[in-house]
């Protein structure tokens, strides 16, 4: 089978390019082959085109309803999917474990990784004093209201 490039003068017929996929029709002899620049075309025999036409028609008749159903499903579910992924992206920070490193520094033990230079609360009454101070301030605000 001879190979033809787009734009070359050819005989009338049907020409097929595998990559990039394309089918071109030449309606008269000595006309340039329309098509994609740089694509290599092969001429399909007329009998092969005639024999495959009913098969291609049947494929279209059988496949077209599936294409319609898929297009309708896409039109319905694409906005829902977009909304779901938008909200999931907004709340994704809750699933990250960034807080684990900070929480490990709050166990009251000196020398934890990442606590160099940080003041660590000891369980020698400081925490109870702080809780009492916060409770007193809350009570004072309640009485002012």
Short descriptors:
single chain, 145 residues, alpha+beta, two-stranded antiparallel sheet, 6 strands, 15% strand
Structural notes for this entry:
The chain has 145 residues and is an alpha+beta fold. Among the domains are: 3-44, no CATH class; 53-93, no CATH class. Helices cover 49% and strands 15% of the residues. It has three helices and six strands. It has helices spanning 46-91, 99-104, 126-144; strands at 3-5, 9-10, 13-17, 22-26, 31-32, 40-44. The chain has a four-stranded antiparallel beta sheet. The chain has a two-stranded antiparallel sheet with strand order 2-5. The longest helix is centred in the middle third of the chain and has 46 residues, at 46-91. The model has no long low-confidence stretch (mean pLDDT 85).
Shape: rod-shaped
- Spell out the helices and strands N to C: EEEEEEHHH
How many helices?
A: 3
In percent, how helical is the residue content?
Answer: 40-55%
Distance between the termini: 95 Å
Tally the beta strands: 6
Mean pLDDT: 85
**Strand neighbour order, sheet with most strands:** 1-6-3-4
**Main sheet properties:** 4 strands, antiparallel
How is the secondary structure organized here?
Layout: E1 3-5, E2 9-10, E3 13-17, E4 22-26, E5 31-32, E6 40-44, H1 46-91, H2 99-104, H3 126-144
Antiparallel strand pairs: 1-6, 2-5, 3-4, 3-6
Describe, in short, the structure shown.
By secondary structure, this protein is α+β, with helices and mostly antiparallel strands.
């Amino acid at each position: 089978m001879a190979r033809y490039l787009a734009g070359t003068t050819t005989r009338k017929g049907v020409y097929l390019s595998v990559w990039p996929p394309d089918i071109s029709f030449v309606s008269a002899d000595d006309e340039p082959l329309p098509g994609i620049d740089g694509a290599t075309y092969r001429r399909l025999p007329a009998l092969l085109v005639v024999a495959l036409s009913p098969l291609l028609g049947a494929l279209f008749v059988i496949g077209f309803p599936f294409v319609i159903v898929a297009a309708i499903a896409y039109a319905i579910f694409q906005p829902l999917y977009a909304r779901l992924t938008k909200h999931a992206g907004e709340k994704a920070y809750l699933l990250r474990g960034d807080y684990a490193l900070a929480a490990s520094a709050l166990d009251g033990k000196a020398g934890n990784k990442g606590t160099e230079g940080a003041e660590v609360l000891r369980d020698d009454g400081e925490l109870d004093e702080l809780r009492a101070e916060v409770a007193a301030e809350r009570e004072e605000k309640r009485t002012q209201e």
